[in-house]
Amino acid sequence: MKQKRLLRLSLGWRIVLGLVLGLIVGALFYQNKMAIAILNPIGTIFINLIKMIVLPIVVSCLVVGIAKMGDIKKLGRVGGKTLIYFEIMTTIAIALGLIVGNLTKPGDTINIQTLSKVSISQYTATAKTASNHGLADIIMNIVPTNFFDALGKGDMIPVIFFTVMFGLGIAAIGKRGQVLTDFFEATSEVMFKMTNWIMQLAPIGVFALIGVTIAQFGLSALKPLALFLLIAYATMIVFVVVVMGLVARLFHLNIFDLLRVIKDEMVLAFSTASSEAALPRIMEKMPRYGVSQGIASFVIPTGYTFNLDGSAIYQSLAALFLAQAYHIHLSIGQQITLLVVLMITSKGMAGVPGASFVVLLATITTIGVPASGLAFIAGIDRLVDMGRTAVNVVGNSLAALIIAKSEHEFDENKQQAYLAAIKHAPAVKSH
Questions:
Q1: pLDDT per residue over 10-44, tens digit each?
Q2: What secondary structure does DSSP assign to 40-86, as a single string?
């Protein structure tokens, strides 16, 4: 009976169980090479399964959404609103990180002589390349020279640009384009079905990913940086509850309702430290929650690159933390410069592996912090990454709701029905 009940647990609870078991196993097998060698491929396979379906879902949903929207003026208005909203929220997030860093001064308690000997060479080449990319380069890279090359590399923004143009082309030819709309609509349904299958493996993937992280670094890695970790998470919580909460209220939304709706996706993003893991489910869930398909299909994938609120908080807070640890005093002018630099570099590097860490590596030298200083927080980067990824998922979900509200494309009846279904849903599956 207990086994049957365990199998009937909702996906969210099974992911939490995988997370807890991963922590325990990782702690028990700390620095055990065999355990790491066994767990690492399992976690990697799960993340690869997610990556496999992300771009097909984005392309199919976006083509259908744009084709049904069918109005280039409306698309331009939605795109303008979306990018302005993203820039405002990212700026607030960076500013909040700087304010908290100045008030709490977490770096003052650190003895930099205890610097960890963690290699950051894997990020150096990427940081050098990305730091040379100005705003003009970012804009130029929006247009792909080869769509299939961009698709193969996983470059989200060029893929979105082509897909939007393709969707508008379908809308422009009228009834003759209906066959393509039907094809991509069927494709999106197939991809969501695949998503549901892959998500059943999420607890195992989460177990392996957390297990590897703890087995490699150990719980002891938290001790010297516990204050920074605590401040980073507290700042992220304040941003979600207060800043996002106020923004949601301005549009007659409740942030806690949204958190209840996407709680499983937040746990998944947190435990895998991958926004991609939650992206397919968010894109499926937001239209069911009342957001029009066109808005959801455009805003959420775009936010994957341009709206990383959790990462923005971490980058500004970590930059100040390292400056304080090296006893480097930053004037107001220098901190404003840092804010602007982070705003630009974070947009140019959002698609690279370890993006937040690379952003820091490319920007801290502008404030006089040696690049080797990042080795000090490299050991806990994964642990902070879990929190900032969850915040990124919340931020993009809220963005879809707000843009839909502003365009009067938010179905409140769907919203209320969805909330009622969640409220009365049992803790275990009914089937």
A1: 777 788 888 889 888 888 888 788 888 888 898 88
A2: HHHHHHHHHHHHHHHHHHHHHHHHHHHHHH--HHHHHHHHHHHHHHH
Say which residue the tokens 């630009």 belong to. 344
pLDDT band at 116 (very low <50, low <70, confident <90, very high): very low
What residues are paired with 9 via a beta bridge?
428
**Which amino acid, residue 113?**
Q
Q: Tell me the C-alpha distance between 160 and 79, whole Å.
A: 12
pLDDT band at 115 (very low <50, low <70, confident <90, very high): very low
Two tokens, residue 373: 């200083």
Tell me if residue 108 falls in helix, strand or coil.
helix
Is residue 241 within 8 Å of 96, Cβ to Cβ?
Answer: no
Domains for the chain: give ranges and CATH numbers. Answer: 2-69+77-423 (1.10.3860.10)
pLDDT in tens, 286-298: 999 999 988 988 8
The residue written with tokens 């940086």 in the block is 225
Question: What backbone torsions phi and psi does residue 410 show, to the nearest 5 degrees?
Answer: -120, 120
Q: Which of 96, 75, 88, 82 is nearest to 399 (CA)?
A: 82
Q: Which one, of 282, 270, 300, 273, lies nearest residue 357 by Cα?
A: 273
SS3 154: coil
* Token representation of residue 379: 């050991």
